[in-house]
Amino acid sequence: MSGHESTYVPKTGVEKWLDTRLPIVRFGADYMSLPTPKNLNYWYTFGAILTVCLMIQIITGIFLAMNYVPTTAGAFASVERIMRDVNGGWLLRYVHANGASMFFIAVYVHMLRGLYYGSYKAPREMIWILGCVIFFLMIATAFLGYVLPWGQMSYWGAEVITNLVGAIPLIGEPILIWLRGGPAIDNATLNRFFSLHYLLPFVIFGVVVLHLWALHTSGQNNPVGILIPKDREKKDMIPFHPYYTVKDGFALLLFMTMFAVFVFFMPNALGHADNYIPANPLQTPAHIVPEWYMLPFYAILRAVPDKFGGVLAMFGAIGVLFVLPWLDTSKVRSMRYRPTMRIFYIAFVINGLILGWCGGQLPDAPVIGNFSTFNLIDGDLNSFLWLTRFATLYYFAFFFVLLPFVGLKETPLRIPLSISEPVLRGPDAMSGAVPAQAEKKG
């Protein structure tokens, strides 16, 4: 917490010398002893999992870069050489490729947990905003890395995404030329993408440090969503270590087991087969798709008929996350005590899965077999295009309509006075609870 006093005492001369000049050991020790709410569940372990995923990506990426050739003539062959001739190269490549998917699985769970428990509300807005910055940088890094193997899907994915920049009025064309390094995707493009892909993980690491710093200052949220007063800290909070280091370690073990299953038993399950075909600018794949973790945003892009409108919608789908703390009007943080909003939240999660599914389909493919009815101006109501549009509409309505309106109109359940006191159900057992409206905001 912001008022947490340091308990670290340097013991050796070296520690004392370092502590007076760069108190990094003190920062780590203080973080380990940070008072933490005692009711954090396993959904809160994904922060530690994400940190490990980032370190895995950085370390494997450094070793892969030692053997990668960022040219259109040598990129694909260098990847194959890594797989076949470099000692342990196949393992490095599969860990790095599948590590990106594991990274996004963890970050989606982490963000959905924050959304459910209201971790973006005051005084934790900066924690949330920095998390959104990390998410945006992850998407950029993943896209740049997707291009580097220089397979068919890599090349045409880069062709499609970079062309979107050209749709921006006035400044789009100059930015497109700068991004590609010329009028077309070539050696200059691959060099730029390789340099940025190598750089951005370290930028992410820097933002993660700021993210943890903000967490250390504002304190950890909890599933109940209440602010813990100073006089309740001894009853409601415990040190981060050893309680949550052990819990995080167990969750990390389970997560890494799933990671290992993908790496050793189905390393290509989350990739695209066309990326094992060398890039050919003269042969367009039948269906150009990004990696699975970008499919929801790709679906939103295709849902809008206008090219520039689709670009705005795609980036708006990410940008809306940055202003989320000011869109939610409810004074209650946790959706445990917001039954109406909880229903819309579950629908939002399902809607995200639908967007991801639609993003991987052809826009005009029928949803149910070859059944075709209700012809409209732009096509068939039974197509994925229309399902994508309905899902896109709900995505934005959740943030701009439901969160503000439901927060003002719904009647929340009563919330407990503290996380240590159980709250019994029923009108006659509310002595240990207060009306949700009475909780001070922030």
TrEMBL record:
Cofactor: heme; heme b
Binding annotation for a ubiquinone: H216
Localization per record: Membrane
Membrane-spanning residues: 42-69, 90-111, 126-148, 160-178, 198-215, 250-270, 308-327, 343-363, 383-408
Annotated ranges, domain Cytochrome b/b6 N-terminal region profile: 14-224
Positions with a binding annotation for heme b b566: H110, H211
GO terms classed as biological process: respiratory electron transport chain
Textual note on the cofactor: Binds 2 heme groups non-covalently.
Domain Cytochrome b/b6 C-terminal region profile: start-end pairs: 230-417
Function description: Component of the ubiquinol-cytochrome c reductase complex (complex III or cytochrome b-c1 complex), which is a respiratory chain that generates an electrochemical potential coupled to ATP synthesis.
Assembly mode: The main subunits of complex b-c1 are: cytochrome b, cytochrome c1 and the Rieske protein.
Designated name of the protein: Cytochrome b
